[in-house]
Amino acid sequence: MTVSWDEVPCNGRNGPITGYYLTYTNITSNTSYTVNITGGDNRIYNLTGLIPYTNYTVSIMPYNYNMTGPARQEMQITAKSISRPVVIADLIVHARTPTKINIVWYPPTIPNGIIIVYEIRYRGSTSTGPYNITNTTNTYYSIVGLMPNTSYTIGVRAYTSIGPREWTNRDYTTAKIPVIEIFSITKLNFTAVRAEWGSVPEASLYTIYYESTSSSSRKKRQVETGMRIFPGDTTEGLIGGLDPNLNYLFSISTSFNVNGIVYEGERTQPIPGVTLNPTIVSSTLSIITVTGSLTIDTIQEATYSTVMKPILPVIEEFPDDVRSEEGHQVLFEVKVKVRGNSKPSFNWYHNGEPVTDDYTHELRGDGSLLLVSVEEKHKGTYRFVANNDAGTVSQQVVLTVAVEGSDESRLLHGDSSSAKIGMIPVDKFGEFVAKGHAKGNEGFRNQFGMLDSGESEHTVTVGLTPSNKLLNRFANIVVYDDNRITLRPMSGHKDCTNEYINACFIKDYSNQYQYIATQVDSLNGLKDIHVIDHHFQ
User: Domain Ig-like spans what residues (predicted)?
Assistant: First the structure.
């Protein structure tokens, strides 16, 4: 900033003016600086190193050979004119859960002053009531206490000492309450079972429902229903008081408590009946008494019954979610480990309905399911259930069927645009191959020239290890070793055991913020992303 002043009046000089003392003071910090300007004609000075949008006072004191004159009356100046900031351009969601949305934003590109606070407001997108308003000095904020699967209008604006500019508004939706994917029932005795399930972050409670049915020629068909509620910080619970003569179906749901209102998510598909009657194995012991003449005197027989405790089957291998086009085969291949003599039975359920062995479904003896030729009606959730006398274990997989010309079909072909894929008709395939081979395979070389030949200096050895290979959403998309994210164990997240996930860490993305690009489509993957989120913060 340039400061200039008038010369001292002739009748007040008391001799020639030989210089000036210029003093400027930061009003906020009360810090003063004095500059000695020699020469009576030097009446202009450039102040540098000032703090933007800060008020200063400036005073000039002339002097001559004999004495120093009085200071001129102080004048207040501002290093840069303060006004309202421009609107915030980038308001994005960093993470969301069923009851929380984390937002981040960049400071205004033209602040027009020191930003003293950011104001945040939010309400339901369909609401006409007042906004909830809060503020922060950070460029991020976590909005909590929201309703699951609900759209909210969220606004942010910046304040200077002059005031705010207009709101920047965006509509964002909270996540749906997830359906628990891992759920098993283990029989403890004739009247009790133990339920175990995968945890859902920030859940308030879990509800296990059970229903039993039994029929007999001597009595009417009877049905017993019930439920048990367990706190959100546990992943197992006991259910007692069951009737050993009944067969039971079990399902579980997750709930979130928001300001005293409980929001319950979708139940899992019911796990088929657990038989509570014990398995009896009989053996006969013969006692033979022999006389001195080696003749058999008597034979005594006694039968003893013992209860052999059955062992729950273990699902060792299970497929990830599958995307396929119409007309293709899809094999849900499973591997179940069986211990003991209690051989399990296998069942599949499609969107809650039992899958039967017919012309479109092949139920294999090892529990695997083959869809001979998928159609759009086959899409949805498939739950596999293995059941023996010890209890029931289950897992589910989602099948997405892409109809020709749909978004899913374009995605499978690597085309995310809205243009229709140029499919090759069957009767034109020979011509397509011939053209590709023409001129020394020039067509095929051009088509596949951009693919990685495997000679890249970037290695992918970690992603292709047996334990990590299952974590890749697509077999042909593996993260480079030097880009992968390593997950370190965290207290309270014992279920996040993977040291690798198909995700890339991009340093200094968008200049100020770092970014994680990832592929995940399972609950276990979401748990790992939750851990990544903690590392990232």
Answer: 313-400
Decide if 420 contacts 407 (C-beta within 8 A). Answer: no
Residue 373: give the domain boundaries.
314-402
**Which of 243, 264, 285 is where one domain is finished?**
264
Q: What's the rounded Cα separation, in Å, for the pair 337 and 393? A: 11
Band of residue 280 on the pLDDT scale cut at 50, 70, 90 = very low
E strand spans, 277-360: 280-290, 296-307, 314-317, 322-325, 330-332, 335-337, 345-350, 353-354
Q: Residue 354 falls within a domain, yes or no? A: yes
Q: Is residue 235 part of a domain?
A: yes
What is the model's pLDDT at position 434?
A: 75
Q: How many whole angstroms separate alpha carbon 97 and alpha carbon 91?
A: 18
Residue 435, number of CB atoms within 10 A of its CB: 12
Provide the number of structural domains found in the chain. Answer: 5
In a domain, 63, yes or no: yes
Same-domain pairing of 318 and 375: yes
Q: Phi/psi class of residue 437: alpha, beta or left (left: φ > 0; alpha: ψ in -120 to 50)? A: alpha
Q: Please report which confidence band the pLDDT of residue 514 belongs to, taking 50, 70 and 90 as the band edges.
A: very low
Give the separation between CA 336 and CA 467, rounded to whole angstroms.
18
Closest CA to 402 of 371, 378, 419: 378
What's the CA gap between 69 and 454, in Å, rounded?
Answer: 83
Residues 397 and 475 placed together within one structural domain of the fold: no
Domain boundary among 354, 384, 402: 402
Q: Which residues of 59-85 are buried (b: 16+ CB within 10 A; e: fewer)?
A: bbebbbeeeebeeeeeeeeebeebbbb
Q: How many angstroms separate the Cα of 133 from the Cα of each of 103, 143, 418?
A: 14, 11, 40
